[in-house]
Amino acid sequence: MLPLKSQNVWFRIKEMKYSNYSAVIIGSGIAGLYAALKIRQQVNLPDGLLLITKSKLGESNSRYAQGGMVGVMKENHADSTQAHISDTIKAGAGLSEFNTVKFVSEKSDMVIRDLLEFGVEFDKDENGEFMYTLEAAHSVNRVLHSGGDATGRMIERALCEKVKENPDIDVYEKTMAVELLVNSECRGVIVFNEITQEYEVIYSSCVILATGGAGQLYRYTTNPAGASSDGIALAYKAGAVLQDMEFIQFHPTALAIDTEEHLFLISEALRGEGAKLVDSDGREFMYKYHELKELAPRDVVTRANFNEMIDKSNVYLNATCIDSGKLAKRFPNISRKCLEYGIDISKDFIPVTPAAHYFMGGVKTNLNGETSVKRLFAIGETASTGLHGGNRLASNSLLECAVCAYAIAKHLKSQELKSPKQIDKKIKAHIDEYSDEAVFLEEIDIEIPRKELRNIMWEYAGILRSEKSLVKAAQELEKLRCNFPRGSKCLNIEEYELRHMICTSGLIINAALARKESRGAHFRSDYPQTNEECIHSIACSGENIELPASKEEIFVK
Ligand code: FAD
Ligand code: SIN
Q1: What is the pLDDT of residues 224-280, one digit of tens each?
Q2: Strand ranges (E), 59-196
Q3: Which domains are assigned to the chain?
């Protein structure tokens, strides 16, 4: 059994609440916020629009984005959509879907200009022209940034303001989606408000998952506490097809100063400006691993760091070769944070380590954000559109969030969005699970199993995997799952998060076992070669889905 915090027995009787909406968006990162604004702007919503977030509005992975957002801008004559498409596909290790890449790339200029209309600002030079930076595996400078190295925070801030100003967007904070209501199609969602301890059934004509990533499944991650894969686990339970679950991107340069929740990121843009990776003797080593050295694709740099750390224990980023004035102006956030730890980045080497950073897989969607479950949509990091393949090109994520949020609004314009007024037996049964009058729950110390799960995933399903390590991961996870003493109802948001983390971890392990090759971010030490054939892997629950017909796809249960 898991450690009980105390012998307290909680007793709760609450009335179930009910409401009706035309559309519900779950998540207030850049994907969710921008989708809310675009949908409100363009779509007829007879029953209104609700945005739910388990955190405070704007607390999300998005907020921590540093390097920037890809802008394939018409005025940047050094760049072109062809070049961006080619870079994305090369970095994606053969799995990116051409049509998706083309779609996202071609919409880049348009969504950037639209974001400007919503008050987002990108850094400009003294002539008023956009400043473009370079990141790994980009063939030209094309990454737009804001506030130097605070791109995510700046975009979030602007979009949050617009959402708050808009009286036609209802917002629930500290409210967690705990169950999707699905019969043959999605009819709404059950949410749990941690402050009032109330459950609410929200019937809605469509539900949009914008719940972000899964970095918290790993001991070391750049992702804040909320990145617990909720949307992926909820969609899986609802029968949606998931894709490419084995592809976790590890960032090579998180600040190697341990904090329980997440590690501070040292942006790739520093390497774009000339910083070098060095070992504990101050010697550069990337030339041994790839001709692009520090600007090789992220998976390559991560494995190089990991390898050097086995031999020499520490690796560092040397940014002292960059002009100190430029460092302070271009990277104010990183300079300040490092200084808090006594590291002056203009003089000292920065200790760095790989950490889980981005989830390439997720809920399989088409370019309208539609999942395999009717009326259930997914956008942003939770979705798997096929853009990133086996390894995401830097700064393509914020772009994908914006393009897909824009596209979903366009798609919904032609739909009739009336909240469902009738429900069937299956949905009623779901609701009944949450509406029992009384519940007895013993308080558990959730931090202990959460830490254990993160250690299991880091040790056995991390940067290097093998059949042996993955089987061990599956066994350890199963013990954890069996000891988790909760059914439908949990006591708080953290417990629901753990429930989702256990589910998604199992799916990642299964998908990683099934892919008997090394490709992109998925490296199998027992299968170090990449196969010639490129196949997406699909994980599915087998309910409510039309399986994709392609025989190139493999199915993992
Ligand atoms: P998020 O921004 O993660 O938002 C998810 C939201 O969903 C949150 O509000 C969360 O509270 C809410 N939520 C989750 N589950 C539930 C639930 N069950 N119920 C209710 N609410 C829920 N990408 C780039 O392109 N460029 C960069 O420079 C860059 N830098 C990065 C730096 C860091 C440190 C990190 C962590 C990531 C970075 N990324 C970058 C990746 C990028 O930030 C994310 O992929 C992107 O912001 C994801 O946006 P999102 O809207 O999909 O999800
Ligand atoms: C970074 O700034 O290094 C992160 C960029 C990204 O993840 O796209």
Answers
A1: 999 999 999 999 999 999 999 999 999 999 999 977 689 999 999 999 999 999 999
A2: 69-70, 143-144, 169-172, 175-182, 186-193
A3: 1-247+360-436+445-545 (3.50.50.60), 251-356 (3.90.700.10)
Catalytic residue, candidates 187, 271, 298, 519:
298
Kindly tell me the sign of the dihedral angle through the C-alpha atoms of 139, 143, 148, 153: negative
Least confident of 3-7, 314-318, 477-481: 3-7
pTM: 0.95
Nearest atom within ligand 2 for CA of residue 67: 2
Confidence class of residue 5 from pLDDT cuts 50, 70 and 90?
A: low
Asked if residue 227 lies in contact with residue 22, where contact means CB atoms within 8 angstroms, the answer is no
Distance 354 CA to ligand 1 centre (A): 19
CA of 485 relative to ligand 2 center, distance in Å: 38
Sort 58 into a burial class: Cβ within 10 Å, 0-12 / 13-18 / 19+: buried
Q: Are 500 and 54 in contact (CB under 8 A)?
A: no
State residue 549's pLDDT score.
36
- Radius of gyration of the chain from its Cα atoms, rounded to whole angstroms: 23
Q: Is the CB of 397 under 6 A from ligand 1?
A: yes
- The DSSP code sequence of 463-528 is SEE-HHHHHHHHHHHHHHHHH---SS--SSHHHHHHHHHHHHHHHHHHHHHH--S-BTTBEETTB-
Mutate to test the pocket of ligand 1, among 56, 61, 145 (most ligand atoms within 8 A of CB): 61
* Contact yes or no for 263/220 (Cβ under 8 A): yes
User: What tokens were used for 368?
Assistant: 């309208």
Q: Which of 453, 432, 551, 433 is nearest to 500 (CA)?
A: 453
The two tokens of residue 505 are: 């971890």
Indicate if 153 belongs to the active site: no
> For residue 440, how many C-alpha atoms fall within 13 Å in the half-sphere facing its CB?
3
Where do we find the tokens 């939770």? 382
Tokens (6 digits) for 113: 């200009």
